[in-house]
């Protein structure tokens, strides 16, 4: 199996970020309930963690 190229890694980061954030876009923050705000923050955290993990993986492959 070949090592993914940098553009492939970058595309993966964009896909992961977009998928995670698509659910958050439906939340209207001024009208959100406490549960919806919790969901919003958790999705943002998960998205950031996923993107950072992909970047760390990408950096590991560049070495």
Structural notes for this entry:
The protein is mostly helical. 76% of the residues lie in helices and 0% in strands. The radius of gyration is 15 Å and the shape is elongated.
Secondary structure: helix percent: over 70%
Number of strands: 0
Specify the oligomeric state: single chain
> How would you spell out the order of helices and strands?
HH
| Ends distance | 18 Å
Q: How does the helix and strand content classify structurally? A: mainly alpha
Q: Main beta sheet, described?
A: none
Low-confidence stretches: none
On the 0-100 scale, what is the average pLDDT? 79
**Radius of gyration from the alpha-carbon trace, in angstroms:** 15 Å
Overall shape: elongated
Strand content: under 5%
What's the helix count?
2
Can you lay out the helices and strands and say which pair or pack?
Elements: H1 6-24, H2 34-62
Helix pairs in contact: 1-2
Quick structural gist:
The chain is mostly helical.
Keywords:
elongated; 2 helices; 63 residues; 76% helix; mainly alpha
